[in-house]
Amino acid sequence: MSAARIGQAARESVSGLPPAFWWLWTSTLVNRLGAFVATFMTLYLTVDRGYSASFAGLVVALHGLGGVISSLVAGVMTDKLGRRPTLLAAQASTAFSVALLGFMEHPAAIAAVALLVGMTSNASRPAVAAMMADIVRPEDRVRAFALNYWAINLGFAISSMVAGLIAQHSYLAGFLGEAALTLTCAVLVFVKLPESRPEKAATQTAAEAEVGLGTVLRDGRYMGVVGLSFLISLIYMQGAFGLPLAMGAAGFSTTDYGLVVAVNGILIVLLQIPVTRFIEHRDPQKLLVLSALLAGYGFGLTAFGGSVGALALTVCVWTLAEIINSPTQMSLVVRLSPLHGRGRYQGVYTLSWAVASLVAPLLAGTVIDRFGAPWLWGTTAVLGTVAAVGYWLLMRNLPRSDGGVAGAGSSGAGAPAPASAPAPAAAEG
């Protein structure tokens, strides 16, 4: 492909999105550039502070528990207080709690503040997703969510390298650096992002105006998506939990694991945008079924990976699944969310990932200890198959925004909100 064609493709990938989206995108990138705590928490506790692996596991679990709690609370705040106030509160409190964690000495204090960091750092996710849905046109949402996911991974890739160098000299500097960057995000939100929460029309019925958590939990199709997201999350998180355990047991070094898992971030940065251009107007049912199978069997192939090169190839398979699944599923989540309940719906969706972050380490450790690593990879293949069947069943006869039916053989970027929910306004974004 010529340089001119590449340039044209790049311009088409980023064109047509509102300025507010790019400020939100910038905030996401800056925030992920400071992702120090989540990356180096275990090493900080075991290597720098000398605590046991079991205590480090407890602290990491408490950090994940904080995310479970804040997913629901932040979702309610996003709808009731607004997207902008929730983002400001979440990012300012994250900056404070991360800085505080760097000065904690007593184990109980470290554990308590880690729980607080987990709560505050995850509280912005429902607000970010809801604001993105508010300001981006429905037909551009797959592309917008893909660009945001690309920023997350680009920021994480850069921060992992830089933070690693910082950690060699001072973990405290890493904590304070993350706090400073998170505070910068709060300033960006305050200065550049207006409130995007849709106004409630005076003619709305009480049922349309009030969307509670009970409404979300009773939405069978949506909770099906949340359940499938949980299964997919269990699979993907084995890259952080099951893969290092299995490679360590097989005699691979930590450097080997670093090289293998680095393939994931590199491929996302290189391929997320071009792959999204290829899939954004294709049948979401087929994309989600394909991504579930690629994820499950990509990890399943790890059982046959006897070398660093072979393991890196398996990472290529499940990374492609991740690239396809993330923007497609996020677009589906928004389509199934009522206009004035997006915060709560996004909060429950975020909960699926938070709960998976608690279950995935237990699944990996238990299966590997009792049965061996091949059984774990066989389990991921089963989970991927179950998820693929689930997506196929869930999206049968699901109406699309163009009046067709998802899975009926024509393209479409997602399904509209269910009949019980007010449809997104045509002037959205």
Short précis:
This protein has 429 residues and is mainly alpha-helical. It is 75% helix and 0% strand.
Architecture overview:
- The longest helix has 29 residues, at 141-169.
- The two termini are 33 Å apart.
- With 429 residues, the protein is an all-alpha fold.
- The protein contains 18 helices and no strands.
- The protein has helices at residues 3-14, 19-33, 37-48, 53-80, 83-101, 107-122, 124-135, 141-169, 171-192, 206-209, 213-218, 220-236, 242-249, 254-279, 284-300, 308-335, 342-370, 373-394.
- Mean pLDDT is 80; it is low at 401-429.
What's the total helix number?
Answer: 18
User: Would you identify the regions where 5 or more consecutive residues have pLDDT less than 50?
Assistant: 401-429
Strand content: under 5%
N-to-C series of helices and strands:
HHHHHHHHHHHHHHHHHH
Q: What is the β-strand count?
A: 0
User: Percent helix among the residues?
Assistant: over 70%
3D shape: globular
Q: Measured on Cα atoms, how large is the radius of gyration?
A: 21 Å
Largest sheet: none
Residue-averaged pLDDT: 80
Based on secondary structure, the structural category is mainly alpha
For the termini, the CA-CA separation is 33 Å
